[in-house]
Amino acid sequence: MAQNIYDRQDFFDAYIKYIDRSSKDVDTDPAWSRLVLLLPPVAGLDVLDLGCGSGWFCRWAAANGARSVLGVDISQNMLAKARGLATSSTDEEASRIEYRCADLDELTLPESDTARYGLVFSSLVLHYLADLPRVVALAHRVLAPGGFFVVNVEHPIYTAPRNPRVVRAAEENGSTGGDNTGELCWPLSGYGDEGERVVDWLAKGLHKYHRSVTGYLDVLLAQGFLIRAFKEFFPTDEELTSGKADEMEKLRPLFLMMSLQKQN
Q1: From which residue to which does any coiled coil extend (predicted)?
Q2: Per residue in 165-189, pLDDT tens?
Q3: How far apart are CA 186 and CA 207, in angstroms?
């Protein structure tokens, strides 16, 4: 069973403050500007959003002509927020969106959904799931031939360390790195040690699962997906200058984005 930390009130409150403070939305988030390029045209498609959170992608898909959108998330708090934000969509668009509460590690969809969806989307969710092969198999089953599975995960370089942090490296003159003179760097450790990580982000005790790039690709390719695009996110100089992205994001890739297609 996946951790439902968004229904832990201390984490949820901190998360809402975080997204309000960051003031990022689907139109201004630099990562979205890359991710949207991996998507097929959604007009006329049935769309499944695995781990829909506050429903931002569901609303975007409906606004861009998706025939139907199903958003699934484990958190009642996030789904309540998604339904509360439905007022940002027209009534006709909102009528094409359905939200469902379910644990993606245990999600089942009826046989009638086999080969139904033209797009399965999942952003910043798969690294929270213990059973990746199961959810990838589910996505493959419900996709129509030629349909796309577009995913965005925390980059394995970001998820690998058990104590993730930015430090200053020791300089050639013998500095130990504790005097604020060395170059900023991201210490990479544990990359080949796949498995659960427990980190503190917004609140203590966030559980996630580190997988190497090979770990992800092995599961996706074994299911029969074709890789159509593969992107690592780094901000541009313009995004850094304008404040849309943080300089720390230059030190290590934060996101790994993939567009995968089910064979005809």
Answers
A1: none
A2: 888 776 544 555 455 567 888 889 9
A3: 21
